[in-house]
């Protein structure tokens, strides 16, 4: 039973990290162009110029 | 999301077989690698930039990337925005950006320009953001470069922004993320409580508290979209599905909290959060499907939006948006340009008023006549005096008419809401009766009575019912999108399924709405010669000639005499009068006179769409009687009606009469489907039970329509009706299933036999069945 004292907080913290990551991705507009992002990972050449910020 | 609404490449095998090496269009006999000079240039440009890999990756529709020989000269420099560090930024909507390879090509091609700092394209929004160091006028070079590659660009307009800046959609996605996180973590804890029968009461209490600590904030935050809409429904005084969801979720959360405080055997936070997560998932997908349609419409509108050329007092010209022009200003209308404002001609002008009146033949307006906005200049460039600013003009008046008609249509109640109206009160009455029966008759403690009453609310799980219609909508809208039909209204499919009469416009709807060369006994060599001269002109008839012989080379040294024709050495191509023959009656004839050779005349006509008779027949077999309403003269309308197989036709109908005819039909209890493309059809489109506009329709008609056909032809229309009817049948089946399922589940819950495990299992299974059933809607 003592294991629960560690395991439950650990699982919750991991879950919260995931949630925070999701909210960050949403806020930084990574969900705005899902089709483009899916295609972009296949470009194997070096990006020549990318939008700053 | 891409599986639901990505336009499928139509003929990718044709690209590899005998297709143009750049755009993939089928090659005409005699053509070697390219379908036109523009594509050859684009291919050389791509190869020169070292970007040939594009062709291996491309998935665009055949012919979509053909560069236009004449690009409308819209000055983009005013749209470039100067940033603080002196760099320029320009946002463009790019048409033709349909696959990953396209964004790669656009970004790499722009990055190859030395002064361009960055270029980033968005595939879903068709938006390109490019920044560079230097002059704002470089914007035009960038647009020209993209134009040579085959992409059409327009400034990013506020309409595009409204369509893509989907704050509500982002809020829904965020709520979904939170609800999914909450339900998964609570499920971990709940499973421990369900299986841990030998668990001590203190540990169980601790786990309940843990679940409550996750569950309460999740229920409050992730449920906000539902609570807001439920509150609106309460104020409007009509029960909605969102009200049922809100009450169910909040009651379950409150009851679970009280069970947590008194350390009852179970809490129900898992059920409440899972319900929210499932419902939000349905909504997010529903929105994504319709957002794509809204974006495509906004993109089409942005490309149509143009500038007008204002004549300043000092004789200079400047390009300004139509909104900036005041009454009394003088504007220059170039050949082939569409009038964006009402005005008075200062000289005689030949205008094609098909979009405003439905006449298929251009008409001569004498100096001093009022010119309607929306007409196309078929003659030479002329100046006109603007008689009304954009907001007071005839287009704006039509838009207001539209708005009123739209409001009348807003009263349509979707099937899901009709179901909710009777379902929600019944469910709440059953829940109240359960509570009273346990508490009053069986004299159980109030907590037990409350648990059973809330179980009824939870198990009636508006889940399946709330997913029943949206799930079908997503699948059907996605299927239509792949067939080139954009669905812009949420209830359009439902209304389309019940349409029983179709009213068609003639010009631009049944016909192609653009001039086509009538095949005559012309010699191919002569035709080619004429086309090579015609390539130098933007005149609609000249362009029709070029379309008839697209691979003709551009003739050298062609001089255009505005309003009359073209001259190239001893050869003349133009109006009959220009070539020494009698004046043409309708302006639909062109004559080529090459030196002393006999003049050859070319007749043009507005041809009927090839698939129109088939489409009309298919509509009839679906039970829709057809009717033709046109503003054109009797002879032209009767001929087209006969060709299309329509017996019921009316000619000389003005916009008001069109709308009145629709109103009469509706009063008779019919459900008319209006199909039209012109400004004169817009009011009728908005007034109809359901409306559609064909490819190339005017912007006003497209905004007024529930469905926008993107591909040429009308054949998508019968298919859309079949899909809509099928979707409707499946939606009804889904609703029926949810009701039957509730008929079994409610008694079980009312007698207190439902545990959280059973609730979770039935909730998930019923939702799954409804969603799987909805997938069948994609079949034609």
From TrEMBL, chain A:
InterPro entries: Cyt_oxidase_maturation_cbb3. It holds the Pfam family FixS. The keyword Transmembrane applies. The chain crosses the membrane at residues 6-26. Keywords: Membrane, Transmembrane, Transmembrane helix. This is Cbb3-type cytochrome oxidase assembly protein CcoS. It comes from Neoroseomonas lacus.
Automatic annotation (TrEMBL), chain B:
Signal peptide: none annotated. GO terms for biological process: copper ion homeostasis. It is a multi-pass membrane protein. One of its GO terms (cellular component) is plasma membrane. Its main location: membrane. The chain crosses the membrane at residues 175-195, 207-227, 239-258, 264-285, 422-442, 448-481, 729-751, 757-775. It is found in: Cell membrane. CDD domains: HMA. Residues 88-154 form the HMA domain. It comes from the Bacteria. Pfam families: E1-E2_ATPase (PF00122), HMA (PF00403), Hydrolase (PF00702). One of its GO terms (molecular function) is ATP hydrolysis activity. Keywords: ATP-binding, Cell membrane, Ion transport, Magnesium, Membrane, Metal-binding, Nucleotide-binding, Phosphoprotein, Translocase, Transmembrane, Transmembrane helix, Transport. Belongs to the cation transport ATPase (P-type) (TC 3.A.3) family. Type IB subfamily. This is Copper-translocating P-type ATPase. It comes from Neoroseomonas lacus.
């Amino acid at each position: 039973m003592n294991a629960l004292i560690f395991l439950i907080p650990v699982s919750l913290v991991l879950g919260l990290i995931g949630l925070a990551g999701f909210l960050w991705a949403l806020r930084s507009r990574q969900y705005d162009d899902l089709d483009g992002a899916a295609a972009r990972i296949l470009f194997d050449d070096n990006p020549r110029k990318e939008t700053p910020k | 999301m891409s599986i639901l609404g990505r336009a499928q490449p139509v003929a990718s095998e044709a690209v590899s077989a005998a297709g143009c090496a750049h755009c993939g269009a089928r090659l005409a006999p005699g053509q070697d690698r390219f379908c036109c000079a523009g594509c050859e240039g684009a291919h050389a440009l791509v190869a020169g930039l070292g970007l040939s890999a594009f062709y291996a990756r491309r998935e665009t529709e055949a012919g979509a990337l053909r560069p236009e020989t004449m690009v409308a000269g819209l000055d983009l420099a005013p749209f470039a925005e100067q940033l603080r560090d002196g760099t320029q930024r320009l946002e463009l909507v790019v048409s033709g950006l349909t696959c990953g390879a396209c964004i790669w090509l656009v970004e790499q091609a722009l990055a190859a320009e030395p002064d361009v700092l960055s270029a980033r394209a968005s595939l879903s929004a068709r938006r390109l953001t490019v920044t560079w160091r230097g002059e704002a006028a470089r914007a035009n070079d960038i647009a020209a470069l993209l134009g040579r590659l085959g992409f059409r660009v327009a400034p990013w307009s506020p309409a595009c922004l409204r369509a893509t800046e989907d704050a509500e959609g982002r809020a829904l996605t965020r709520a979904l993320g939170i609800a999914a996180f909450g339900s998964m973590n609570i499920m971990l804890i709940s499973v421990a409580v369900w299986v841990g029968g030998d668990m001590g009461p203190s540990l169980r209490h601790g786990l309940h508290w843990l679940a409550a600590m996750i569950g309460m904030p999740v229920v409050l935050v992730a449920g906000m979209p539902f609570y807001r809409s439920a509150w609106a429904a309460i104020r409007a005084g009509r029960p909605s599905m969102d009200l049922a969801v809100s009450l169910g979720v909040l009651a379950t959360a409150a009851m679970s909290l009280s069970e947590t405080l008194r350390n009852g055997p179970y809490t129900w936070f898992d059920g409440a959060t899972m319900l929210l997560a499932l419902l939000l998932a349905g909504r997010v997908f529903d929105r994504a499907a319709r957002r794509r349609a809204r974006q495509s419409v906004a993109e089409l509108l942005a490309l149509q939006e143009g500038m007008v050329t204002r004549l300043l007092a000092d004789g200079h010209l400047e390009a300004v948006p139509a909104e900036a022009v005041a009454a009394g200003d003088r504007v220059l209308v170039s050949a082939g340009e569409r009038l964006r404002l009402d005005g008075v001609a200062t000289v005689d002008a030949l205008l094609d008023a098909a979009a405003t009146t439905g006449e298929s033949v251009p008409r001569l307006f004498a100096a001093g006549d009022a010119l309607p906005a929306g007409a196309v200049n078929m003659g030479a460039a002329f100046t006109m005096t603007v008689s009304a600013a954009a907001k007071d003009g005839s287009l704006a008046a039509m838009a207001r008419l539209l708005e009123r008609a739209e409001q009348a249509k807003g009263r349509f109640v979707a099937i899901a809401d009709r179901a909710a109206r009777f379902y929600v009160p019944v469910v709440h009455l059953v829940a109240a009766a359960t509570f009273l029966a346990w508490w009053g008759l069986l004299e159980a403690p109030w907590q037990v009575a409350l648990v059973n009453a809330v179980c009824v609310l939870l198990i009636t799980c508006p889940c399946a019912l709330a997913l029943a219609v949206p799930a079908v909508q997503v699948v059907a809208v996605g299927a239509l999108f792949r067939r080139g039909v954009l669905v812009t209204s949420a209830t359009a499919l439902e209304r389309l399924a019940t349409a029983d009469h179709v009213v068609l416009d003639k010009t631009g709807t049944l016909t192609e709405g653009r001039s086509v060369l009538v095949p005559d006994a012309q010699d191919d060599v002569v035709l080619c010669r004429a086309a090579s001269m015609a390539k130098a002109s933007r005149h609609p008839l000249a362009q029709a000639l070029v379309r008839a012989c697209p691979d003709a080379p551009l003739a050298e040294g062609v001089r255009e005499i505005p309003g009359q024709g073209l001259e190239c050495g001893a050869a003349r191509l133009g109006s009959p009068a220009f070539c020494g023959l009698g004046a043409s009656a309708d302006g639909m004839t062109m004559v080529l006179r090459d030196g002393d050779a006999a003049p050859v005349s070319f007749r043009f006509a507005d041809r009927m769409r090839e698939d129109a008779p088939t489409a009309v027949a298919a509509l009839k077999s679906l039970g829709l009687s057809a009717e033709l309403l046109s503003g054109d003269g009797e002879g032209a309308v009767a001929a087209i009606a006969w060709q299309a197989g329509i017996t019921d036709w009316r000619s000389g109908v003005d916009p008001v009469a069109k709308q009145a005819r629709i109103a009469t039909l509706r009063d008779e209890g019919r459900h008319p489907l209006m199909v039209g493309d012109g400004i004169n059809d817009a009011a009728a489109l908005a007034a109809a039970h359901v409306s559609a506009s064909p490819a190339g329709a005017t912007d006003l008609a497209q905004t007024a329509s529930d469905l926008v056909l993107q591909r040429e032809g009308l054949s998508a229309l019968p298919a859309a009706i079949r899909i809509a009817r099928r979707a409707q049948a499946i939606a009804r089946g889904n609703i029926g299933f949810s009701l039957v399922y509730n008929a079994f589940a409610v008694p079980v819950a009312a007698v207190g036999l439902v545990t959280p495990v059973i609730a979770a299992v039935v909730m998930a299974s019923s939702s799954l069945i409804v969603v799987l059933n909805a997938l069948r809607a994609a079949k034609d």
